[in-house]
Amino acid sequence: QVQLVESGGGLVQAGGSLRLSCAASGSIFSINDMGWYRQAPGKQRELVAVITSGGNTNYADSVKGRFTISRDNAKNTVYLQMNSLKPEDTAVYYCNADIWRTTMRGYFNYWGQGTQVTVSS
């Protein structure tokens, strides 16, 4: 079994910063891409940022220059540093990862339970 557990969400004023963490645990052999998505009320879930196992990154245009994704492969953990937060960044943030389990062949996609980020104006 594999779990993704997010932490670091909360309430912050506009212009502030938060750092999200997501740790993968369980019967993990390898992790490929890791990423963050978000879903605001009444909106579809959207990609925020993704990072490959080699460290290549990609960001949504709306967060470029403000958010930074990183990962610690030894800890199976991905981070999202969010600076200059805006009210429109308010959403539930979900961690996502492609994981090869020790008991199965191939990469499977997993989601965390989500963490709420609220930015007040």
Tell me the radius of gyration. Answer: 14 Å
**Main beta sheet:** 7 strands, mixed
Kindly report the oligomeric state of this protein. single chain
> How many helices in DSSP terms?
0
Shape: elongated
Number of strands: 11
Mean pLDDT across every amino acid position: 96
Order of helices and strands: EEEEEEEEEEE
Structural class determined from secondary elements: mainly beta
CA(first)-CA(last) distance: 41 Å
Share of residues in helices:
under 10%
β-strand amount: over 45%
Low-confidence stretches: none
Plain-language structure description:
- This protein has 121 residues and is an all-beta fold.
- It has strands spanning 2-7, 10-13, 18-26, 28-39, 46-51, 57-59, 67-72, 77-82, 91-101, 107-111, 115-120.
- The strands form two sheets. Strands 2, 4, 5, 6, 9, 10 and 11 form a seven-stranded mixed β-sheet that branches.
- The model has no long low-confidence stretch (mean pLDDT 96).
Features:
elongated; 121 residues; 0% helix; four-stranded antiparallel β-sheet; mainly beta; seven-stranded mixed β-sheet
In short:
The protein is mainly β and 121 residues long. The chain is built from no helices and eleven strands.
List the SSEs and their pairings:
Elements lengths: L1 E6 L2 E4 L4 E9 L1 E12 L6 E6 L5 E3 L7 E6 L4 E6 L8 E11 L5 E5 L3 E6 L1
Parallel strand pairs: 2-11
Antiparallel strand pairs: 1-3, 3-8, 4-5, 4-9, 5-6, 7-8, 9-10, 9-11
